[in-house]
């Protein structure tokens, strides 16, 4: 018997990176796992591995959090498979940053103001579509998943929602303003939701991440590197990180697990930053 035996956990984007590491911990403690992502094969591979390793039921189906119809269909499917959701981890998402013409390298949350390698600001030439895209990608994705999940979450009686955001939501440098603002919306919405759903015994918390080594960051390196190794490419990104390194997906998964599980049963409306000390919020 694990700590989560009898519980059902839905992890969006459970096939890779932070989501994949989280699923591992939830399954190890006996939870039934539901996960969604857009690509079928990584989902199927992860499901096979997890079900084999932990002898738990793993339910997979492809869905795109950016498409309301896809999410509606996903929940029609899921509600035929399970009776309740006890844990929802809103993790799926990508990050595409617009590349400024003047920028000589990829920008990062922790870039120091006035860094001579970076253009001074890009606000003046950002258009509304960029802001709308960021909101669609970051905020509306998690909003629509949570809304469709609510009937199943309400059946739990003891549910926990953990929303994964970026530390940009707390402190948005000018050059990544669009996603920073959209992540702030996720923070404020999570705060509001924790108060609204608390009386029903539903907890809502946020895990906020800095630079974490996942396929997402590996993709950034692949796209923008000019011959530098992964370590060389991201070295500048750790300049303002107290611990002077990027994080690992399993370090984030530990925090998500804590907030998802009964170990945090009296915690709601809170924010835990996994960023090595880049944004100091105490
Ligand atoms: N890693 C970082 O440094 C970092 C920093 C700040 C914020 N974050 C946020 O943390 C979360 C997890 O990041 P990660 O680094 O673990 O990413 P990752 O390695 O790229 O994994 C993302 C997961 O989400 C799925 N996904 C992406 N877009 C989706 C969509 N539209 N609909 C459904 N599933 C989707 C992916 O599968 P498919 O591609 O098959 O859909 C995959 O399973 C994301 O929301 C990301 O924005 C990460």
Q: Proportion of β residues?
A: 5-15%
* End-to-end C-alpha gap: 37 Å
Q: Tell me, briefly, the overall form.
A: globular
Major beta sheet, strand line-up? 3-2-1-4-5-6-9
Largest sheet: 7 strands, parallel
How many domains make up the coordinates?
A: 1
Task: Tell me the quaternary state.
Answer: single chain
Parts with pLDDT < 50 across at least 5 consecutive residues: none
What's the CATH topology name? Rossmann fold
The level 1 CATH classification is Alpha Beta
The tally of helices reads 8
CATH homologous superfamily title: NAD(P)-binding Rossmann-like Domain
Bound molecules: NADP nicotinamide-adenine-dinucleotide phosphate
Helix percentage: 40-55%
Radius of gyration: 19 Å
What's the number of extended β-strand segments? 9
**Succession of helices and strands:** EHEHEHEHEHEEHHEHE
Q: Using the 3D structure, state the CATH architecture.
A: 3-Layer(aba) Sandwich
Mean pLDDT: 91
Secondary-structure content class: alpha/beta
Report on this model:
With 282 residues, the protein is of the alpha/beta class. The protein has one domain: NAD(P)-binding Rossmann-like Domain (Rossmann fold). It has eight helices and nine strands. The protein has helices spanning 17-28, 40-54, 68-81, 128-154, 177-197, 215-224, 230-234, 249-260; strands spanning 8-12, 32-37, 58-62, 87-90, 160-166, 203-209, 212-213, 247-248, 271-274. The strands form two sheets. The protein has a seven-stranded parallel β-sheet with strand order 3-2-1-4-5-6-9, sandwiched between helices. It has a two-stranded parallel sheet with strand order 7-8. Strand 1, helix 1 (17-28) and strand 2 form a beta-alpha-beta unit. Residues 12-13, 15-19, 36-39, 42, 63-66, 91-95, 164, 166, 209, 211-212, 214-217 line the site of NADP nicotinamide-adenine-dinucleotide phosphate.
